């Protein structure tokens, strides 16, 4: 698809584990795109599908009226948007900024106020789902901001999200994601602990998988993660370091609001131990490594990997 002056493309900043498949789904369904990523090689698949690749973020803002941001954290957003410089007002004036990154509600509200002060429109748009749902266009979008603007964005987000839920004022979409991710993080840690427990008792992990997959607790997440445990496949769908960052933000938000949330604190500790063991960019199910290390340190048995190898041999 060749873009021309008669069609304003959608801008897309950030083509990482989540951003690239999201942008690819937009390109495949005919959305005109102008994309930028710090590592230029990540742009190649988008170029192959007809998207224009910008040399700088400034070029994206110069050409697009709606810009989707999927950058790794708040520091990256500030740097790419040039907050605090004369470039920032020119970037956002007359644009709709759709921020899908995992950030704090406080940061999001402050950014929204600055965008509005310079004549732009801000939409908070975190998504629920990891790399595979992103590839399948099956994310769940949680949107906050002006409801009329959110409604106008639904057709743009349709190739990316199987559902879009309006959550209210800026801040509420991120708080909704925190609530959902609290469940996700604790569930994955619980699954890892259950599999580790099964392995330590000498049970066949494939039989554990069969029972869990057939039962009432099975879900898309459990089926994917238990398969990764059985195969010892820690290739990333959602990274440990990202899960730890999510757990940190949830824990701090709970503490600031006086909300009891002991399970996310325990999960946060296990994730931090997993990062310290050298697995920050493995899949979050690698939290089992922390359980294995605790077990080994306590002299209570061999790690899950050794047990699996012993059974397969």
Which key phrases capture this entry?
single chain, 313 residues, alpha/beta, Rossmann fold, N-(1-d-carboxylethyl)-l-norvaline Dehydrogenase, domain 2, six-stranded parallel sheet, 15 helices, disordered N terminus, 3-OH-isobutyrate_DH-rel_CS
Residue windows where pLDDT falls under 50 for at least 5 positions: 1-5, 299-313
Instruction: Provide the CATH superfamily of the largest domain.
Output: NAD(P)-binding Rossmann-like Domain
Q: Please state the average pLDDT score.
A: 93
Q: What share of the residues lie within helices?
A: 40-55%
The CATH architecture of the largest domain comes to 3-Layer(aba) Sandwich
Q: In percent terms, what proportion of residues is strand?
A: 5-15%
Q: If helices are DSSP runs of H or I spanning 4 or more residues, what is the number of helices?
A: 15
Q: How many angstroms separate the termini? A: 53 Å
- The oligomeric state is single chain
Please identify the structural class as seen in this structure.
Answer: alpha/beta
CATH topology of the largest domain: Rossmann fold
State Rg: 21 Å
Number of strands: 9
Order of helices and strands: EHEHEHEHHEHEEHEHEHHHHHHH
Biggest sheet layout: 6 strands, parallel
Which CATH class of the largest domain applies here?
A: Alpha Beta
Shape: globular
């Amino acid at each position: 698809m060749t873009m021309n002056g008669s069609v304003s493309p959608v801008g897309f900043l950030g083509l990482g584990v989540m951003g690239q498949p999201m942008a690819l789904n937009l390109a495949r369904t005919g959305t005109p795109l102008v994309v930028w990523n710090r590592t230029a090689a990540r742009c190649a698949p988008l170029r192959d599908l007809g998207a224009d690749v910008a040399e700088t973020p400034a070029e994206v803002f110069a050409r697009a009226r709606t810009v989707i941001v999927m950058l790794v954290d708040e520091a990256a957003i500030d740097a790419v948007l040039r907050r605090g410089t004369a470039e920032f007002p020119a970037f956002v004036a007359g644009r709709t900024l759709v921020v899908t990154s995992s950030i704090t509600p406080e940061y999001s509200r402050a950014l929204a106020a600055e965008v509005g002060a310079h004549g732009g429109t801000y939409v908070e748009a975190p998504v629920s789902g990891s790399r595979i749902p992103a590839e399948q266009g099956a994310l769940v979008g949680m949107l906050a901001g002006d409801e009329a603007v959110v409604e106008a964005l639904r057709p743009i987000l349709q190739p990316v999200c199987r559902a879009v839920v309006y959550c209210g004022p800026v801040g509420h979409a991120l708080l909704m994601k925190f609530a959902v991710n609290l469940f996700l993080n604790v569930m994955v840690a619980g699954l890892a602990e259950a599999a580790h427990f099964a392995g330590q008792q000498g049970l066949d992990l494939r039989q554990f998988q069969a029972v869990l997959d057939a039962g009432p607790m099975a879900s898309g997440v459990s089926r994917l993660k238990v398969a990764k445990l059985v195969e010892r496949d820690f290739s990333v769908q959602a990274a440990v370091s990202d899960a730890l960052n999510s757990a940190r933000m949830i824990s701090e938000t709970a503490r600031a609001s006086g909300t009891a949330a002991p399970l996310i604190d325990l999960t946060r500790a296990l994730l931090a131990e997993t990062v310290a063991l050298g697995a920050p960019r493995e899949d979050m199910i690698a939290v089992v490594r922390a359980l294995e290390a605790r077990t080994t340190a306590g002299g209570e048995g061999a790690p899950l990997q050794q047990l699996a190898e012993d059974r397969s041999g």
